[in-house]
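>> received
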Amino acid sequence: MSGSAGQTPAGVNAVGESFLMPVEDVFRRHQGRTVLVTGRIERGRVRIGNEVEVVGPSRGPIAVVDGIEDGRVRIDEASAEMNVGVLLRGVAADVVERGQVLATPGSIDTYAAFTADITLLSEEQGSTAVVVGDRLCFYTRTAVLWGTVTVLHGTDVVRPLHGAGVTVALEEPVALEEGQAFAFRHRGRAAGSGIVTQLPR
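>> returned
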């Protein structure tokens, strides 16, 4: 489920929102008693002592932030756009992996389907037409996962340099939000990008 693409840009306003950090790497510390999770904070703040939820492919365990590292410097708090390591207590290393997110408990959920607006690259860039039933490889935040186009909205085929609304069924759930960006590959080649417009209710 790991990869890197479709990062949601974090701006000044992102600091005041609920905490979210895509998981990039995971390391064991202190003979496995704590887990160091590294990544770039997408939004919000995190402080030592905060509870965070490990999300993806399901709503995961709650862990306590035991420490925060900025490079080799220990800090008490980190905020949006910072690349940090977060030391977690109360969670096993084997349940945290690249492609998941750390988040304020209850602030984000996982989904196995979504509707999106997509735009294809040109044929010269490697894109080919997309039709219902095509299996695509999606990249969003640090996750990589496969999904199948189940519906094309208003058309029978999406051709290179064109766009359309699509509904996708994923092969495993992932943390998603409306407005989330992603890229995708088709038949082994970069094919296009999109924005999530609707999630199941």
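>> The radius of gyration is 18 Å.
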